Amino acid sequence: MQVIVPEPYGYPPSNAHSRRSSAATTRSTKSIRDRRRSSGALSTHSQSQKPKRYIGDYIVGKTLGKGASGRVKLGVHKNTGEQVAIKIISKTHLAGNPAIEKAVRREIAIMKLINHPNVMSLIDVIDDPASSDLYLILEYVEGGELFEYLVSKGKLSESEARHHFQQIILGLDYCHHHLICHRDLKPENLLLDSNHNIKIADFGMASLQPLGSLLETSCGSPHYASPEIVAGMPYHGSSCDIWSCGVILFALLTGHLPFDDENIRQLLRKVKTGKYVMPDNISKSAQDLIRRILVVDPSKRLTMKQIMAHPWFKETEPMNIHNLPVPSMDIGQPVSHPSEIDDRILETIKFLWGDTDDQVVINALLQKE
C-alpha cells in the first residue's frame, strides 16, 4: 500500500532560520520538520534587481518559493497596489508530467468553486496561448505556514491552539458542505495571515465527492492520513479530513505527532491501529476531543457538527461562527434548459467528474432532485 506524499505549496515558503525550538521540544519538532522534508519542502531564492516585469496587471516582484509544479512570485497590482502570490507553471513541464498537470487542473477547478475567509482565494488564472507559462493569481498570505509558527514556538497554548483549530474546522466545514474534500491537511498547508487567521491552502489533492459515493485514491501525507486511507479501503473524504484535523490538534497542543516512526511500514501500522500516547499535560477536555476524533472506525469518529458542539471547541466563540456555510443544495437557481448552463461551470464539473461527456453533466444539472 503506497501513500502518495504530494509536494506542499506554501505562500510564502518556509524560512529555515525561524525553525527554533526549546530543548524540551527539539526532538518532537525535528520530527515534524523531518516529515516535511520527506514530502518536498519549498526553498527560498534571492533575486537580483531587474527591470519591471508584468503578468497581466501585476508587477512581478521577488521569488517567494519554488515547488514541484512551479515558481511562486510576489505580485503587486499596478493600479491598486494589491499584493498577490503568482504561481508560474511551465506548460511544457505540465505536458511532460500528467500527475502534476492533473493536480494543477484539480486545484484550479476546485478553488473556482469556493469562497471562504479561512480558505486561500484563487483570484484569477492567466492562460495566454502566446506564453509558455500558466499563471495562477492567488491571495498573498504573508504570515507563512502554521508549520513554521509551530516549530518556532514548540507548542501552543490551548487558547491559541483553539483559535487556529476553530478556523480550520470552519473553513473545512464550508468545503465539505460544497462536497469538496481536501485530503492533504497538515500544518504545512495551513497558512497564517497578518492577523494570525488561518487560510487553508493547496487543493492539489482535493476531490469533489458526491453524496453517497466513496473515494478510492490513496493520497495525503502518511503522518496525517486516516487508517482507512492507509489500509487502502474506499473512504469518505470528509471523515479522512476530520482525522487529519485530530492529528493537527494533537501537534498544536504537544509539539509532536501522535503517529511517528522512521520506518514507513511501522508508521503505517501505527496509523492503522490508532495507537498513540496521550500526554497528561493538556486539559481533559482537549484530550477527550482528540480521542473522539482519532477513532479508527470512521463511522464512530466525530462529525463536523459534533466537533463544533464539543465543550473544548465552544469554550470561546469561534470567529465567523455567524457565517456558517449555506448547504450546497440551497445555493443558486436550478437550470431548466441546456442554454442556461455556463460553459465555464460545465467544463469545471466535467473535469471534477473525470472528464465526463458533456451530455452526462447536462442531464445531471437538469434533474430536479
TrEMBL record:
Enzyme Commission number: 2.7.11.1
SUPFAM superfamilies per UniProt: Protein kinase-like (PK-like)
Catalytic activity: L-threonyl-[protein] + ATP = O-phospho-L-threonyl-[protein] + ADP + H(+); L-seryl-[protein] + ATP = O-phospho-L-seryl-[protein] + ADP + H(+)
Residues holding ATP: 87
First-tier enzyme category under EC: transferase
One BP term from GO: intracellular signal transduction
One cellular component (GO) term of this entry: cytoplasm
Pfam family name, one: Pkinase
Segments of this protein annotated with the region Disordered: 1-50
Gene Ontology terms for molecular function: ATP binding; protein serine/threonine kinase activity
Biased composition, class Polar residues, residue ranges: 40-49
Domain Protein kinase: 58-313
Major subcellular location class: cytoplasm
The entry's keywords: ATP-binding, Cytoplasm, Kinase, Nucleotide-binding, Serine/threonine-protein kinase, Transferase
InterPro entries according to UniProt: Kinase-like_dom_sf, Prot_kinase_dom, Protein_kinase_ATP_BS, Ser/Thr_kinase_AS
Protein's cellular compartments: Cytoplasm
Family: Belongs to the protein kinase superfamily. CAMK Ser/Thr protein kinase family. NIM1 subfamily.
PANTHER family: KP78A-RELATED, MAP/MICROTUBULE AFFINITY-REGULATING KINASE
Name recorded for this polypeptide: non-specific serine/threonine protein kinase
